[in-house]
Prior knowledge:
The complex is a heterotrimer of chains A (281), B (323) and C (552).
Chain A: H1 5-11, H2 13-35, H3 66-102, H4 104-119, H5 122-133, H6 137-146, H7 149-164, H8 167-174, H9 179-216, H10 226-234, H11 246-271
Helix pairs in contact in A: 1-2, 1-11, 2-3, 2-11, 3-4, 3-6, 3-7, 3-9, 3-11, 4-7, 6-9, 7-9, 8-9, 9-10, 9-11, 10-11
Chain B: H1 7-27, H2 32-44, H3 47-56, H4 63-75, E1 81-82, E2 87-88, H5 89-124, H6 129-143, H7 146-160, H8 178-216, H9 219-226, H10 231-243, H11 245-249, H12 251-269, H13 274-284, H14 287-315
Antiparallel strand pairs in B: 1-2
Helix pairs in contact in B: 1-14, 5-6, 5-8, 5-10, 5-12, 5-14, 6-8, 7-8, 7-12, 8-10, 8-12, 12-13, 12-14, 13-14
Chain C: E1 2-11, E2 14-24, E3 29-33, H1 40-47, E4 54-61, E5 64-65, H2 71-77, E6 82-85, H3 99-109, H4 115-128, H5 145-156, E7 163-167, H6 175-187, E8 193-198, H7 201-207, E9 210-215, E10 218-224, H8 225-230, H9 235-243, H10 278-282, E11 288-290, E12 293-295, E13 304-315, E14 318-329, E15 333-337, H11 344-352, E16 359-364, E17 367-368, H12 374-379, E18 380-383, H13 387-390, H14 397-408, H15 413-426, H16 433-436, H17 445-457, E19 463-467, H18 475-492, E20 495-500, H19 503-509, E21 512-517, E22 520-526, H20 527-532, H21 537-545
Parallel strand pairs in C: 3-8, 3-9, 6-7, 7-8, 15-20, 15-21, 18-19, 19-20
Antiparallel strand pairs in C: 1-2, 1-4, 4-5, 9-10, 10-12, 11-12, 13-14, 13-16, 16-17, 21-22
Helix pairs in contact in C: 3-4, 3-5, 4-5, 14-15, 14-17, 15-17, 17-18
Amino acid sequence: MHIDVKKEIRQSGIGRAGVIILVLVVLIALLAPLISPYDPLQQSTDSLLAPSTSHWLGTNHVGQDIWSQLLYGAGTSLLVGFGVGIISLLLSIIFGVSAALIGGVYDQIVMRIVDAFIIVPMAIVAILVAAYIKPDIPVLILLLSAFSWQGGARVIRAQALSLKEMGHISASRVFGASGLYIARRHILPDLGPILLVEFIYGVRRAVFMEAGLAFLGIGDPMLVSWGVMMRDAMRFSYLDVWQWWLLPAGVMLSLTIVGLTFVSHAAETVLDPRLRGAEVA
Amino acid sequence: MSTRRNLATYGIAFLIILGLNFLLPRLMPGDPLTAIYGDEALIAMTPELKASLVERFALDQPLWQQFGAYISSLFRGDLGYSYYYNAPVIDVIMGSLPWTLLIIGTSLVLATLLGIVLGIESGWRRGSRTDRSLLTGLMCLNGFPDFFMGLLLLIIFGIWLGVSPLSGAMTPYSGLSGMALVWDVLKHMALPVAALTLAQLAGGYLLTRNTMISVLKAPFMLTARAKGLSQRSLKYRHAGRNSMLPVITMTGIRLGRVVTGALFVELVFAYPGIGYMTYQALLSRDYPLIQGIFLVVAVSVLIANFSADLLYPRLDPRVSYAY
Amino acid sequence: MLEIKDLHVNYGRAGILNGLNLKLERGETLAIVGESGAGKTTLGLSIMCLVEGRVSGSIQFQGKELLTLPKQEMQAIRWNRVAMVFQNVNNVLNPVHNILNQVAEPIIEHRLSSKNEAREKAGELLERFGLPRSRFSAYPHQLSGGEQQRVLLAMSLANDPELLILDEPMSSLDVTTREELGNLLQQMDGDCARLVITHDLDTASRLSQKLAVLYGGRIIESGPTREVLRYPRHPYTRALIRAYPNMTTVKDLQGIKGRMTRPVSGCAFHPRCTQAISICRDKVPQLIRDNERAVACHRGGIITLLSTVNLSKSFGSLKAVDSVNLNIASGETLALVGQSGSGKTTLAKIIMGLHTPTDGSIYLEGSKITNRGKEFYKRVQMIFQNPGESLSHRLTVLESVMEPLEIQGTGTKEQRRDKAIQTIGEVELPRTEDFLNTYPHHLSGGELQRVTIARALVMDPDLLIADEPTSFLDASTGAKILKLLLNLQEHRGLSILHITHDIATARKVSDRIAVMLDGRIIEEGPSNEIVASPKQAYTKRLLGSASALRPT
């Protein structure tokens, strides 16, 4: 079962497009402090200006430069996205692999809990909690991660279970290997492709949730976020400002999510070999 | 991939919901009454009211007794009192729930049907122009968050083209009835439903398409072709019938996502459903209402999942009841 | 009714069917036999026009050319006139529809009856194949393998097709079900032609009247089933029968040397054929008809290597050999069975030229043998009963084995040595210096006999006459020698004339048995037939007194 994830992604046109988009967004996020002309949080009296040479995308209702906000917003989305992605993945691995390897009652209990979390809609819980706690970025990441790892855990557990049954694992057992060794040496490497896919899913969900929560007005008001931009812009939708205020933020957000979708689509063929070949140009 | 969940799972989920609902305010620093009702509400309350509330919810008792009081009040159907709307929470919710159900139900059905059909057609023609454009197109569509989708639709159809109403579920104070009323409602829900449908479409489409691709390689497809069946039979009765199963399985989970989506969409369109209520409650820090909504919504999703689980074996004869 | 001409099916660069020719008449059941990968299923699928890949040639069904038929028409033909019973693998039936609906579906789709009538008919078919009413609403995964096979069969008959293709119809069935199904199929509509595709000779013999053997994408032999199985004409067919464990044949199992590879120039079987000549590598042999049988072989099938015509030898008034007519085919073992004094050894010696016949003649591959020169001895060799005596005690093992080569003057000393050593390895003896320099009196009986065999084989003869080769050996050693001979036959295509008094031995090592009494051949035929149904009294006595382990 020798699959090369990177090759699959490279070969698919969609995958390539996705990677390019993501690289672009990452660059924007990293370079934002360098290339944005203004401090995005700096308010001024020039509010609701149309695009001009000094403000490429104009200003918002409190005189902040939209272009700068757009650039910094990338950082917020990606920070939360990747943060949640990583923590979520770690939790998925820990619970998924342990459930598979330990089995028995532990497995039953963990899976029941996982299933229960899956049924409860993450967003609603996040909103509820955020209404009380008013999270800043670290807390937000933790909060989102807490409700995001369950799906991955299920998939990873299933995969680990089937790997467990394979011959070379039993062979290692016969040599006296401990569970941790087996997990590290045999199961995790073979899980590689799935981990990547689950990670991307996690990032995607988190980017969406962060923007959504910001849009609802929950969250740190000091944060520069595309969601916040869209929320503020919405109140002025009867004016023309939506063209350079609402749209760019929405488009950037959508683009980021689309980029992630594309990459995950290409990576998915790794999981299901039947989807490979004869794929899109 | 059918998930057999047993009652224990639902039980745990229910406990999680209850637990969150119960614990969150009480774990907040400060006076529990403030945490539950919020500062603004408290200002409006008389000391007698405060005292009676403390008594009713056993707020000065240890935690487990509070939980007991909480549970018993739930059983009584008492979800608390909304200070913003000046009415029992349960009444507020029941007033706006039908609107939400309307748009959720419609969009779920539309998105499922359309997603399945498009997925089948796309999978059937895999690699062709149609397939590739559908695939790329829907994946891009998938990238648009519900609220952005809603905003775009609102701007394009509401503001720019001016063909759709900008807010509400009905034209206020119009006093319409009969067909005129129905038409009015439809006009108002068109855009919200469209936004929700478009947002969910890609999920069902992709799942169906992927399943279709593997199903087409199954031996029974060759058998069906050998029987000289028409393209339509092959596509729908044989391949399609098998390919739509995963989407139906996922209905429960997809419902969770729709509900989230409805929250955003109602906000954008000022559609007076549960989502909009939530938004208002968040703005005004009407905690009892927020909690009540959370409870109702979460439990509804649980029930929906449960029903879907019960229905699934009807469609896939390989799966037997787990209960 | 069905005529296939020069059918080529290519998948990528590999040719699956390479110029296949076939004919099937109304009401006939033809079995296509071949090993996996030979292209049997592809053949079935191409008739239904369901095969992927490039197809060329002609498939005529009732006068219509199927390969050029427009899609709509082909769709109408499918199931209505040509139906297929697929190999029963997992998921060959749609898992989400019950079996009654699946059987009724083609009737409804092709608008042959109303929905209710269709279901009625489907029900009847299912019952006919042993599935009771109570199971009509069952789903495929609820059925056993045998039951699924019945559903496939019932389903195939739904639209009363004129041609039914069955792909491995018995593969997933247990014994009793096989019998039932065999009976059911025989009772079926007489007009419906059937094409049975299988690797299993038992299925073929049970279900068909005509047999065609598929190898390398071509039909290489065809004819009435009984005849082909009794007297195969193509080397591959014979080898296939020899490799197939069954209750009819008695000879020990033998394999076919090499394995099926693609692509092959010329005759597809030639790399594995033991009677191949140079033309076999260059040209593809055509399927040539002779009455009801057809063979595709440049040599016309298995050739007759040696034949004696009215061979007689008298010693004074004693007729040791009396008008013997014998044929030994290439690559076969003929056992000559008779008690001492029957004349068998004399016959062998006549063939070897150690006696001159008083009458009759001997032909080697068609040419009459008058003098026996070096050429003859290159092709016909003999081993004797007593290995100790037939080896010179003054020659080492290597020297003995090299002796024929030296006499014949073949090659250089080096080459002779190499050839001798190679042959010594072939008879499973060590090739160490020590062993090669051993003298006969240091060797065991079994080793000695192997040396004589090596010596006889070193010139690559076509025919080996083995006169009671195991009578001086103990049972286990003898068994190994007999096995060695079988293996040598498998690899070299060696024909063996095995002379023995013991019909029990003959039974295990021979394709045909000839019984000799008082210088005459009184009975001759395929070994299993001689043993199972002997005609002559003497043969019966031989069989009666042959070694048996009477357990009761």
